Amino acid sequence: MTGYSDLAERLRARGARAVALQFPAGLKRKAGVIAQFLKEQGFEVIVSGDPCYGACDLARETLGYADVLVHFGHTPLGDPDPRVIFEPYRVDFDPEILKNAIPCLKATRVGLVTTAQHLHLLDAMKTVLAAIGVEAVTTRGTRGCGEGQVLGCSFGAARVIGTEEILYVGTGVFHPLGVQLATGLRVVALDPFTGEVQEVNAEKFLRRRHALIEKARSADQFGLLVSTKTGQERYEMARGMAARCSRAILILMREISPEELVNLGFPAYVNFACPRLAYDDQVRFPAPVLTPQEFSILLGECLFSDYRIDELT
Amino acid sequence: MTGYSDLAERLRARGARAVALQFPAGLKRKAGVIAQFLKEQGFEVIVSGDPCYGACDLARETLGYADVLVHFGHTPLGDPDPRVIFEPYRVDFDPEILKNAIPCLKATRVGLVTTAQHLHLLDAMKTVLAAIGVEAVTTRGTRGCGEGQVLGCSFGAARVIGTEEILYVGTGVFHPLGVQLATGLRVVALDPFTGEVQEVNAEKFLRRRHALIEKARSADQFGLLVSTKTGQERYEMARGMAARCSRAILILMREISPEELVNLGFPAYVNFACPRLAYDDQVRFPAPVLTPQEFSILLGECLFSDYRIDELT
Q1: Residue A221 and residue B249: Cβ atoms within 8 Å?
Q2: Which residues of B touch A53 (CB under 8 A)?
Q3: pLDDT-based confidence at B172, cuts 50/70/90?
């Protein structure tokens, strides 16, 4: 546990006596070991056991029982509570893997974006690209993001970059899809672990979302799902839409789960919480779950041709 | 929706403008219809979509967006918030069904207990029993319970009744088991829908709990699960036990779910939230989940021969 001695030092330096710990699902297994270490170091420890998917979901209630909250695995959002310590979680890969992207790139000047766990490799990635004649440009993201960093709900570091092509380095398909839809640019995605490279094509995604809006059109009632999580609150936006649509009912939920949507039994929902819920979890939901803009399209307030990826700002 | 005109009247009478609604799982399907009715009556409406299993789990956060919370299906606990309206949910049956219990009763004077949804039939049940020579005795329960009412976490209406035999009228096996373990008396359970009658035998239950304590004994760490729900908070009790056991780590959770216990990966847990979680949901949990008293037995602070059913007071 020498890796956490430094954390214990910092906690002592700020005079913390009771410490709350919060982990995203993938790091939760570390809770027992870190909690035990801090307890043996003389701290009173309480772990937040609730699900957590981002810095938008700070364990306020758990912090209520402690002096400090240590939030693992995410970078701070906006203007964070000074009682929260953000502990990064770095995931390494060999930057040479970026050479795999070359055959797929068309420009010699590209925007470069990645996710929080790879940010420490940003300069190394640029160096590899420069050595083969590609200038990689980065800019600071929105929603508290660092240089070159995108979130699943915020693609600002791609939008304002001033290139015609973007290289996304990271896993999964959602982030590069979001970058493509947020910027309208050509986006190449590189998985730094498998080395796989692909150009993003949003067409299938857009067709699916279009079909979902049409399916929701016949619903006689819409549940507008509002979250209370620290960085996901779009209550006023939802309230405005509920006032404009007589068939819309506000629903407040902490965790938006398929089970509870089944229990509520609404024929369609609109998601004002984490944008990725509507996109990633649709297959698990019992009814269409639209984004706020998709609901606006359904209500005739805007056109599908102006489709935007849902982002939190 | 004439059935809810009266509710709208009462809401207007207390000057409510924004109304929060909360339902247990079984009644959640009514949310859409009731919310729509109240919205058409001119109220701003917000539904709590989170899971709810009792009046111990008031939707405080949803109430934060409204003037009044209407909580359906449960009776108030203790000293309730004056901004909460409790709307009972009555479930009828034919009181004549109580005659089914006669062959199984040994005494001519029995204690009578039931659950919230059948309380309105208490006098009718007594009358049926009296007509066949059985005096049914009731007393007011603990934890805000009415005359003859037990909860899954509170059996006071059975404990102080002064008879040697108890008749439980209701569904399920947990409540009569709790009554038996809380009182040590002979308990007869009658399901008022199927008419089935049985004498409660807690032996198998106790054997299972004993085996679970033994299984947990080898754990190198215990997660002490604390809930933040309005009527389930036993933080100080958990904190005291965490201080007495170096292997115990406090974990705060809103919903104690099998998935999150898997993610946390502790080899054993102790449940300070709703007592029924440890009993009813053990089969769904990945590791032993003990009651606080069972953990005391494991720590050698008390004996299994003094086993008590876990209750909230």
Answers
A1: no
A2: none
A3: confident
Residues A188 and A103 reside in one and the same domain:
yes
CB–CB of B228 and A61 under 8 A?
yes
Q: Hey, are the CB atoms on B254 and A32 less than 8 Å from each other?
A: no
Percent helix, percent strand, percent coil in chain B, to nearest 5: 40, 20, 40
Tokens of A182: 């947020």
**For B242-278, what is each residue's pLDDT tens digit?**
999 999 999 999 999 999 999 999 999 999 999 999 9
User: What whole-number distance in Å separates Cα of residue A71 and Cα of residue B8?
Assistant: 44
pTM for the predicted model, two decimal places: 0.92
- Tokens (6 digits) for A300: 């005739």
| Residue A77 included in any domain | yes
Pairing verdict, β A289-290 and B18-22: unpaired
| Residue at a domain's end among B180, B199, B218 | B199
Total number of domains in chain B: 3
- The answer to whether position A312 is within a domain reads no
Residue B313 lies in a domain: no
Interface confidence, given as ipTM, is 0.90
Q: How many CB pairs under 8 A join A and B?
A: 133
Q: Which domain holds residue B269?
A: 203-306
The CATH number for B262's domain is 3.40.50.11860
Largest CA distance in chain A: 60
Neighbours of B133 (CB within 10 A): 8
Same domain, A185 and A248: no
> In this structure, are strands B186-190 and B165-169 parallel, antiparallel, or unpaired?
parallel
Q: How far apart are alpha carbons B103 and A172 in whole angstroms? A: 66
Which residues of A fall within a CB distance of 8 Å from B252? 20, 46-50, 59, 61-62, 65
Report the b/e string of A121-152 with b at 16+ CB within 10 A.
bbebbbebbeeeebebebbebbbbbeebbbbb
Considering the domain architecture, whether residues A6 and A40 belong to the same structural domain is answered as yes
Query: Closest residue of A to B48, CA-based?
Result: A252
Is residue B1's pLDDT more than 90?
no
Is A313 among the domain residues?
no
- Calpha distance A16→A68 (Å, rounded): 6
Interface test with B, best of A220, A254, A262, A284 (most B CBs within 10 A): A254
Best A221, A249, A259, A285 residue to mutate vs chain B (most B CBs within 10 Å): A249
Q: Which of B87, B110, B140 is the last residue of a domain?
A: B87
Q: What length is written for chain A?
A: 313
Q: Exposed, middle or buried, B302 (CB in 10 Å: 0-12/13-18/19+)? A: middle
Query: CA angle at residue B311 from B309 to B313, to 5 degrees?
Result: 150
